[in-house]
Amino acid sequence: MALKRSHTTELGCIACEELSDLGAGKEGWLVENPNILCALDTHSIALANRSFILVTGWDDGPRRRIRPDLSPIEAEFITSLEWLVFDEIRVIAVGTSCGYFLVYSLDGQLVHRQMVYPGRILKIRVRGTKKDLTHQTSSSEEISIVIRGVIARFDGSDIQNMLQEWFQETHSQFWDEKPRKRDSDALENTYKRLPYQLWNVNKYGLCADAAITGIMPPPLMEIQSSQQYYCAVTIGEDAVISAYRLSENRSKSLVGAILSKVVPATFSTIASFSKMIWRSEQTSTKKSEAKTQSFAKASPLTCLKDHPRKGEKLTLSPSGTLSAITDSLGRILLLDTQALVVVRLWKGYRDASCFFMEMLVKRDNAGASSSYYEPSKSDYCLCLAIHAPRKGIIEVWQMRTGPRLLTIQCGRGSKLLQPTYRFGSSLDSPYVPLEVFLLNGDSGQLSVLNRSLN
Predict the structure, then answer these.
(1) Please, which residues bridge with residue 234 across strands?
(2) Which Pfam families does the entry link to (predicted)?
(3) Distance between alpha carbon 326 and the CA centroid of its chain, in Å?
(4) pTM of the entire structure?
(5) Are 373 and 362 in contact (CB under 8 A)?
(6) What is the pLDDT of residues 114-159, one digit of tens each?
């Protein structure tokens, strides 16, 4: 226990009566129930089961319940959970088993509802790469949604604009006016449908997890193209690792450009001619269902098949250049997402989970010894925290090929968590290193792994 205290700092306890609705009170409830989802913010934690969400802090603050409007006919349930944080705006993003992307305020108000693709949403990823001092690249913030065999991408600016419009609307009401409660149909008519890109990435089988790692160069024959290309990494049962080049739109070549002009014109002519022959006097009064968005081009780049090995979980480094992948054989693969090669391998970590973090490993600055010295980004070293639940330990390894820095004992009912990316954070604000938190579900204690080895 002394080792645990020396490398973690306790923040508080989330234990409360409301947690009993999620199964708390039974040993191992947090990790043994696959329907329990967790999402961490810097101030609060959201926990969900199939039908409702509990938002609580680790102090005596208020606890909120959110019950999403789910379809009982289709037996819809919650499948993914994440925070969306932008300045003073904090909302909950929910993915459902029917492919809906929902956004709720902390008081349970439905902010946005949109169909992404029919199917179970496996993951909602919020990430961004900001403009730095050495590489004059533009900032990129995004939300990617993973469905089995499909990945979608929402631009961060569209999400921010939607949240700001909602925030201004709700705060422009009179102080004594109750917020209007909208049903799902009214909400879809009120708010614009957020634009997004959609790709089919099931060439090598359905994926269990996926991530967009960043922008990549265009193919050789498309060097003059003005559109952007993204790299996506997927893992699954048929292929442990596969990678794709994602086109921003469907007009990807000279032939595609010709087809995109000729085919719609031909179809329009045929449709007009058919209307002259077949005139329908009946008009349908039933509301037409939203059509599924068509796929943009996803070109396969590489694939690693190693039966019976199956990819299980995937996590990205802050820059997106490294990815840690766990598989069904108890191995962890460290993938260079730019070269698309495995640069490191760990064995003997069944059911493991990984998160990247930053630690103060080297402090060679002259001012580092001063009590007033504020560490900068260059003082931190990228590390990988590996939680091995069967061993009851957490290991921290220095990237990419560095040693194991420390080992922390943890309870069997514990889970590693990481705060979501915060939209709009600028270089002017103090640098906040990437941290990893440890939640003990049996005791309710929440701790943070210390940034320094001292």
Answers:
(1) 210, 242
(2) RAB3GAP2_N (PF14655)
(3) 17
(4) 0.84
(5) no
(6) 999 999 999 999 998 644 333 434 457 899 999 999 999 999 999 9
